[in-house]
DNA sequence: TTAGGGTTAG
């Protein structure tokens, strides 16, 4: 087979398959392989199974068909098939094959263990782990990972401490776990211990921990990692710098993000995107657009993510017309076809700018079936501007997932904003009758290495009174600045009306 | 063929 002038053979097929970006390409090469009689060499069908498995349910079906007709299978064929099934969530099927498999390798066990862990089935995972004839560092790490993701840091820690041998991977897993769950102190302690034990920093460790910091807003750990990067003169790759910029931006330290960004000797499109997004999410629309301009001037090609940042910046800063212009420019000047996410930004932009009718029209004319997020954005805008009539119209189109708890509460919020308490009651009743429970959203802030979490109706914080008193005063001040005439109206702080 | 990895609207 000729592929870009190269004659494919047993050795090149796996590489060709790896380069496939869609199922059709794999199928095409599969046909060629069969025609040229290369299926007999075990490497080739194994690579086919592996690469079919990358493309969801349809890919798995094709892989299974091939697996079933294979005359010879080796351990890798079985492992790839089982791994593919676990990746698409077909755990039961994977387990069936696992049980049928004549001679399992440790990788087979680890693959199924990973399947249970990814599905959050920790009881099954633990049972399997216990019954393993032998375990290696991957088995232990997988289980630590599972408990860590499930939020059971105690169990994760017990296993971590019991691990006979450690590499930087399990250290990274447990530290990231502590960071994500807000256990800053434990994270820092372990990070110090990891350094003392002589583990050198690597890209994976730094990126994982910083990503966890960005996710949970843990600036303290982020600073710690940045400090050791500088102290140890760790040579930062572009990816590491990007994560660092992102961490500072997400933790609200825009000046630090900006200084790391400006100190980078090499940047890629992601560097620009994280910086732009950082400014945008904190309401610095003008700065975000400046980054966008500079990015173009320095010859970087904006991508789909860039435009999400740009539109978001325009939306949060109230640059409605600039946003509309950018939206049209993205396809015309950059050849990027807007995706549903970009339409979402536009609906948010128009909605926030009180151009609700245009937002509504865009929902109805865009080339996508509106999803719950799109309707939610529009309903949110109706709520923001108290547009009950349009909200009703939206509700006529309310063909979204009835089980999505967020949408019910959004609906209830619109009614509440409009003072329609019967409406609120009806939605609440509906929620009860279909058995929807809304998981409460939480916000958190880190002060002196301690993360404080707040959820609606939760008055358990020891400083509840003074904290909410201050929030109330701030809200009053903001209101006074924004709407001097309404300064005496009651202020809504979350679910509390004070 | 098995464990950790940056950006994506509300």
TrEMBL record:
Pfam families: E_motif, PPR, PPR_1, PPR_2. The keyword Repeat applies. Residues 1-22 form the signal peptide. It comes from the Eukaryota. Keywords: Repeat, Signal. Gene3D superfamilies: Tetratricopeptide repeat domain. InterPro entries: E_motif, PPR_At4g14850-like_plant, PPR_rpt, TPR-like_helical_dom_sf. GO terms for biological process: RNA modification; system development. One of its GO terms (molecular function) is RNA binding. PROSITE patterns: PPR. PPR repeats lie at residues 74-104, 105-139, 167-201, 237-267, 268-302. This is Pentatricopeptide repeat-containing protein. It comes from Gossypium laxum. The lineage of its organism: Eukaryota, Viridiplantae, Streptophyta, Embryophyta, Tracheophyta.
